[in-house]
Amino acid sequence: MQDRRFALEVEDLTVAYSDQPVLWDIDLTVPAGDKMAIVGPNGAGKSTLIKAAMGLVPSVAGEVRVFGRPFAKGRGEIAYVPQRSSLEWDFPTDVLDVVTMGTYGSLGWFRRPGAAERRRAQAALEVVAMEAFERRPIAQLSGGQQQRVLLARALVQEAPILMLDEPFQGVDAPTERAIAAVLDRLSDEGKTVIVVHHDLQTVPEYFDSVLLLNVRAIESGPVADVFTEDNLRLTFGGRVGVLAQLAAAETGG
Asked: What is the DSSP letter of 92?
């Protein structure tokens, strides 16, 4: 029987490049409907974790389950938003076409998107406040607008799990607020959101739970329990700047 209490379960996941471990023996359980941040220093393996969990990079060992099923049977329940900087934005297409691409997985090999798929794409653009740009070439968008388009492309897949790799990186304040509002909306709808995140100050505001990662999983669980000074010291090596950020977040300074 399919266990839907846990959206994602990772057991003993290890990834190595040229015999150098990038992730080591990771165990992680994400309850369905959770909004989780993956936090750690540069080189900690944050992006690698979500890519390995989705089979986008090879793992040395480990098992991944989606709603209790092996990943191979549950991959269609995950929508992925890659880092904006990893994509080619000079491709000659417009915003609506990019978002409509998110419907391809549900169409099969021989169907092309039609009016119904374009309506879904337009609805997703409205959610991220980009409906006025549907015919804008993607090369003419700002970084924040591009990030909203990527989010809309994931939304149109209507998947119960979303994995986002640094969606707040390099965006302006209005875009950050818009993305945060969409993540809240998804959570309210019961969807599971897993985000590689870099800003310690906004972790308590944006997320329910957190995984602290530095090649190994330092700790994971509710933000109130896990996001502590001691755990951050273990994760970031006691760097003064990190602890200062946490203190500023707690005091509002």
From this structure: S
